[in-house]
Amino acid sequence: MSSRKSLHIALIGAGRIGSFHAESIARRIPNARLVAVADPAPGAARRLADTLDCEVAHTDPTALWSDPDVDAVLIATPARFHTPLAEAAANAGKHVFCEKPMALTIAEADRVIAAAAANGVQLQVGFNRRWDRAFAEGRAAIDAGKVGTPQLLRSLTRDPGPFRADPAKIPLWTIFFETLIHDFDTLLWLNAGARPVEVHAMADALVRPDAKAGGHLDTAVVTIRFDNGALAVAEANFCATYGYDIRGEVFGSGGMVTMGDVQRSSLRLFDGSGVSSDTWRLDTHHFVDAYTAQIQHFVDVVLQRVEARGPTGAHARAALAVALACIESVKLGRSVALSEVVSP
Amino acid sequence: MSSRKSLHIALIGAGRIGSFHAESIARRIPNARLVAVADPAPGAARRLADTLDCEVAHTDPTALWSDPDVDAVLIATPARFHTPLAEAAANAGKHVFCEKPMALTIAEADRVIAAAAANGVQLQVGFNRRWDRAFAEGRAAIDAGKVGTPQLLRSLTRDPGPFRADPAKIPLWTIFFETLIHDFDTLLWLNAGARPVEVHAMADALVRPDAKAGGHLDTAVVTIRFDNGALAVAEANFCATYGYDIRGEVFGSGGMVTMGDVQRSSLRLFDGSGVSSDTWRLDTHHFVDAYTAQIQHFVDVVLQRVEARGPTGAHARAALAVALACIESVKLGRSVALSEVVSP
Amino acid sequence: MSSRKSLHIALIGAGRIGSFHAESIARRIPNARLVAVADPAPGAARRLADTLDCEVAHTDPTALWSDPDVDAVLIATPARFHTPLAEAAANAGKHVFCEKPMALTIAEADRVIAAAAANGVQLQVGFNRRWDRAFAEGRAAIDAGKVGTPQLLRSLTRDPGPFRADPAKIPLWTIFFETLIHDFDTLLWLNAGARPVEVHAMADALVRPDAKAGGHLDTAVVTIRFDNGALAVAEANFCATYGYDIRGEVFGSGGMVTMGDVQRSSLRLFDGSGVSSDTWRLDTHHFVDAYTAQIQHFVDVVLQRVEARGPTGAHARAALAVALACIESVKLGRSVALSEVVSP
Amino acid sequence: MSSRKSLHIALIGAGRIGSFHAESIARRIPNARLVAVADPAPGAARRLADTLDCEVAHTDPTALWSDPDVDAVLIATPARFHTPLAEAAANAGKHVFCEKPMALTIAEADRVIAAAAANGVQLQVGFNRRWDRAFAEGRAAIDAGKVGTPQLLRSLTRDPGPFRADPAKIPLWTIFFETLIHDFDTLLWLNAGARPVEVHAMADALVRPDAKAGGHLDTAVVTIRFDNGALAVAEANFCATYGYDIRGEVFGSGGMVTMGDVQRSSLRLFDGSGVSSDTWRLDTHHFVDAYTAQIQHFVDVVLQRVEARGPTGAHARAALAVALACIESVKLGRSVALSEVVSP
């Protein structure tokens, strides 16, 4: 592989976001090549591979471990498979780009981190928000001291409606493990150098109250206290009628930065109803550049041209700890110290 | 009058804007008092006076000239009466606040200016835009050198639709004399110290093409060249479906300022249609503070507490000259030098 | 009084906000008259009265109770005097406009409410945010069903820096009693018809960490759960370098409204540093219209022309209950049910 | 070529924008391949080719005509070479993507159009603004009737300062031929179906007044009257201190659309100076997506997958006619009919 000009990547998981990543690899990243697709659903891998001129398709991802044409894997399966696949891939010497959440327990996270370290492979996690222009510029402004010491932070995720999924098929605690995990990583990343110490969460089923009895939660507000004093709020909801809404705010002793706008372009329409603009409806539209940039970076790191600065296993573990504390907080109805869910 | 704590003002012209000004005098300006209303339409003055607890109403404005209870007049009649009323009021020793346009010919303008000077009365013209917060701050920024030397300016007026007036009852050239006169004053005021030297105008009846044969014009674009090199565009239309649209822009060697927003408040609504905001529908809503501030200033000047800094007869004359040059330009189909319509 | 055309109001408390209100009464509200000023500080009432052409000044506010020229009082003293003054004024038959907080305990709130009811006087509380154009339009949009059922709300207050006060002179819990009380009222008012059931608060001294030992708190994040399921966040900080920042957000099943903008006007400056706008630096600038509108409404209600729709003693009591629950939450380090601090 | 999966493109002109396009071809467009670079400057083609892993470099572009590995050329030379190169390439059977302006006279434009038609090759012109998301959405809104019949249009170009070029080396009339040509195309495209009938231009050397004697012009305002009555303003300046400013506005009988924002991302910084945002400093940053999309479209058209909808030789000719009328207008000091410079 060392002499290759392009990184050969296999995709595992040919669902919505996996297919999008495959297309990024095949079409938007010049020095990457999609060399295989794996998905247990009959025909799914084959169909995706065909549309992207990729020859190899598997129903069993373990077939990739021994394939010398595969330099790296991108894991975009349902969350519960992330850990075993990431660990196995690392142990097979493959570089790993893993969608969030990398793991659902601290022990799992530790296993993936250890496997990557032991095998000397890159391990990057899909916290795409870091690669968005506004969020990246926001972090740079914070690093440059433009907001002083952070005191109040906010990060929110609102998925676009209508909400059509069957709540019964959504794993418990998804709002923390899969949705707010983005906001936890964002807050930890923006409040760089500080560590979360205490978490309080309120959550409910407001979009689908009928599904609450089954444990489904679709709306949550989380407060986090950091060891530098900063207080942060993370907020999520599964059904924003107006589209995909991702925003961040960092207020500090010296000022504030805000990031994120649901407005899709600079187009404004003025008519009898007033002034209006279209909004982002899909993450893959809003964050197409961020989604591409994170994989581009992964590729460039592996091809050894640049220093790794993407989110790693350790970042995934830190965000996971906040999610676990949130779940405890909801269960216990009180604030939870991070030290209750993870040893430092 | 010298010992009065409130300025006693008589309104002449009880139409839409006159009634609004009367209400400002009676209700929004503590040191002013509405002491009389005059309007030739039977009952119009009486009805307005009654709603504002004003006792005196006339159908003949000349009754005001000899009334010692009247310190000042606010002239808000149809434009063709502005000059004779302003001149007569000044000659009667009354201070004059005159709605735009103060005059329709340079000779008329000179007569009003001379009468005010001869009688030592204040003469202020209703160029309200100067008193809007954003425009005032824009001029201050320009004065502070923040845009450097102006090079490109823009001012526009779009009246809110639907257009319901009968074009046959609108005087010829109204778009220049009554609408764009605001923009001409704004441009001359923002490009402070420079003088317009050349004007080119294109105009048409696009809102009511059927009225074009009668000479009605409802849409115009004017280019002005100033003696400091700056090029300015003024633009007007009588029917903006989205409301009342007033904007200004000054671009210079050091930067740019923009002023004006049709958005009515900071409220934004996000729903299935995207993001939207309400717009200003009426000048008297958008500019309620500016309309009040200009009369407040007039009152304070007359009561001798502050130095006059409002638009005067000379400013009205300068804006009128641009309007006259526009009319020539439309008639002749070519650029017109200011020197063709007015001696400096 | 019944035959008066203007409401005669006495101000109690000639500090910063009291002086501003006095000026509103004297200059911005045509059918109100400032007839007396009371303040215990030697000379303070007299000095303010003189600047506003008001003849009567007292150092003892109780002198107002028997003055037949006083129809109503506006109480703008330090918070701890609000309850006794409001109660005494009501018992003297004076209408009461009371700055927030109206009371510091539920028992106190009940006493003021009872006194107003027993004496048949109006009681309005200074929750000025309700009178801001954007917030009022936001509530109207919610009432019109444009956001559906509220699910996530946000209200924040950030006072303009620099923070110059002596923390030792600020009463304990001021951030809840005097600052966030605005946000609590705003949230209860926007989530109309719902009742808060549970509160969680995190607070700290981040602006002045040296003052924390003395109990001073300057930064807080509060989460509120309502009985309609909605989750709300209120947030405050005493030192925003960029000025006075008041924002609101209501997200629901049908959409979202956002209210509040720190940008002072539509002026935008473009230069080598990018695009910039000025911000609001003072509440009395940002909310001059809202401050005036609330007193205007009070006056109009008493003069019997309009139905009362301003915040009453009951609203002050409801917001106070949230503040009390916050204080318990901070003391106990856990969520607090509203039922723990107030009987329904 | 018919069986190729990638379009083989040769770049002619390895200057700033040519190099950027070469990079787009090599890195951002998966089904295109950069197969050669030609530039007469010694070493220029070689250096660029090397950075992009392209093997072939020429100092003489005519070497490309007979190269069977070249399917298409992208012409990014100085403007005066566009016509001969485009014509020769078409006659050699190469598809042509030509930077604006395609020609400097109507006769030249006709020659290129004829050569492309005679040889059955694609001819697309680099009017990149059409491919910007906001402008494309604006045109779609107009097509959907959302602004009704266009009445007032505006398009502007302000190049980012500081202005460092030597005016003596800039060809005469560049502001019309190379800068405003973008705005003319944009206006003609947005006011779809209408034809320009009359043009008036004012231009000056305000950025570099010292260069005016040499004929250099850096600031211009153009008014265009269309045969559907619409009046349009195009405006340009060579030195905007705040960056690259491209905006469009179409006002019509039913509403208005505005397009373009100098703000670079959604990041906003709030500090002691107010609120600020960064601006776009370079066209290749602001329009990276538009620049890529136009070449992507060209490639897709040639590879026969999609119908051609990009700007063609006829569009280049139409925009050129406006530029020629502007030049006449400046020379003659009067409005110029389009019929004076081109037969329909």
UniProtKB/TrEMBL annotation, chains A, B, C, D:
Q: Which residues form the Gfo/Idh/MocA-like oxidoreductase N-terminal domain?
A: 8-127
Q: Which GO terms describe its molecular function?
A: nucleotide binding; oxidoreductase activity
What positions does the domain GFO/IDH/MocA-like oxidoreductase occupy? 137-257
Any single Pfam family the record assigns to this protein = GFO_IDH_MocA_C3
**Keywords on record:** Oxidoreductase
Q: Which InterPro entries match?
A: Gfo/Idh/MocA-like_OxRdtase_N, GFO_IDH_MocA-like_dom, NAD(P)-bd_dom_sf
Record bears the keyword Oxidoreductase: yes
Domain of life (superkingdom): Bacteria
Asked whether the UniProt record includes Oxidoreductase among its keywords, one would answer yes
- Family classification: Belongs to the Gfo/Idh/MocA family.
Q: Can you say what this protein is called?
A: Myo-inositol 2-dehydrogenase/D-chiro-inositol 1-dehydrogenase
Q: Tell me the organism.
A: Sphaerotilus hippei
